[in-house]
């Protein structure tokens, strides 16, 4: 019976062994780096959240048209809620919601951290440009937003718009839906561009009938301007009112709705 031939064991090439060792060393290095980063992250987080360095100490309020009382209200709310706490635990969205509810006439509100220990509140308020008489006087901005918190110092010399109703739901800081008010504000904008009117002052605008708008100057003259072509008609008014032949004390109204200006005597 023939003897079976033995099989010779073939060894692995050295290059493969070296490659496996290199991979193992690299994996070990990566593992050490990951562990180091994880430990560093835990230590950094512990430092950030436990260190007195990041505890809230300051509240800075930047604003336009905010009175001292309003600033104190904001400062008290933020301080009473978060002072001494870690700045990263402060709920910035909750502060923003509180400010939106407390100051509906704010045009923009930004609440942010200023490391290491400060919260900055930046608010931009709508500027009142006129008063609307609707039961009482309501301040409005150039876009027709009702400004319930506008103070008297800012509204004392403003033009009063008559013949416009403010709905109950708009009185707490919403934009008025009145087309008549929108038209009156467009007229007011053109009045400000026509600088000559600053010398006379505009007491009030009657916007009850949108096609028959009129306004009253502080010297008692009524100007009938209609509901369109404001810039052109104001230019006609300027020429008329600056005419040296015009005796202002004897004028009741000036009508610029037509091609020829009509002057009504007292």
CATH architecture of the largest domain: 3-Layer(aba) Sandwich
Mean pLDDT: 87
Question: Whole-number radius of gyration?
Answer: 36 Å
- Let me know the largest β-sheet: 8 strands, mixed
The helix/strand class is alpha/beta
Number of domains as seen in the coordinates:
3
Shape, principal axes of CA atoms: elongated
Report the end-to-end length measured between terminal Cα atoms.
Answer: 148 Å
CATH superfamily of the largest domain: Cell division protein FtsQ/DivIB
Within the largest sheet, what's the order of strands? 5-4-6-7-8-9-10-11
Q: Quick recap of the structure?
A:
The protein has 266 residues and is of the alpha/beta class.
Please give a handful of descriptors for the protein shown.
three-stranded mixed β-sheet; alpha/beta; Ubiquitin-like (UB roll); eight-stranded mixed β-sheet; single chain; 266 residues; elongated; Rossmann fold
Protein described:
35% of the residues lie in helices and 22% in strands. With 266 residues, it is α/β, with parallel strands linked by helices. The chain has three domains: 30 residues; 73 residues, Ubiquitin-like (UB roll), CATH 3.10.20; 136 residues, Cell division protein FtsQ/DivIB (Rossmann fold, 3-Layer(aba) Sandwich), CATH 3.40.50.11690. It has an eight-stranded mixed β-sheet with strand order 5-4-6-7-8-9-10-11, covered by helices on one side. Strands 1-3-2 form a three-stranded mixed β-sheet, with helices on one face. A hairpin with a 1-residue loop joins strand 4 and strand 5. The longest helix is centred in the N-terminal third of the chain and has 37 residues. The model has no long low-confidence stretch (mean pLDDT 87).
């Amino acid at each position: 019976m023939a003897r079976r031939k033995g099989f010779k064991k073939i060894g692995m090439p050295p290059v493969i062994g070296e490659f496996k060792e290199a991979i193992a060393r690299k994996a070990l290095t990566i593992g050490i780096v990951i562990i180091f980063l994880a430990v560093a992250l835990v230590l950094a987080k512990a430092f950030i959240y436990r260190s007195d360095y990041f505890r809230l100490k300051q509240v800075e309020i930047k604003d336009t048209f905010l009175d001292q009382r309003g600033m104190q209200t904001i400062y008290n709310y933020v301080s009473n809620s978060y002072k001494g706490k870690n700045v990263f635990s402060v709920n910035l969205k909750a502060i923003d919601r509180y400010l939106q509810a407390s100051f509906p006439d704010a045009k923009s509100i930004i609440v942010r951290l200023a490391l290491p220990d400060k919260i900055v509140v930046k608010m931009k308020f709508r500027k009142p440009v006129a008063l609307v008489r609707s039961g009482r006087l309501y301040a409005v901005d150039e876009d027709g937003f009702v400004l319930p918190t506008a103070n008297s110092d800012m509204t004392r010399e403003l033009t009063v718009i008559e013949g416009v109703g403010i709905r109950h739901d708009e009185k707490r800081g919403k934009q008025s839906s009145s087309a008549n008010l929108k038209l009156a504000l467009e007229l007011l904008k053109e009045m400000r561009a026509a600088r000559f009117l600053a010398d006379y002052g505009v007491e009030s605008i009657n916007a009850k009938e949108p096609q028959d708008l009129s306004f009253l100057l502080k010297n008692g003259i009524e100007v009938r301007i209609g509901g369109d072509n404001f810039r052109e008609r104001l230019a006609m008014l300027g020429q008329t009112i600056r005419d040296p032949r015009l005796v202002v004390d004897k004028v009741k109204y000036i009508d610029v709705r037509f091609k020829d200006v009509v002057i009504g005597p007292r």
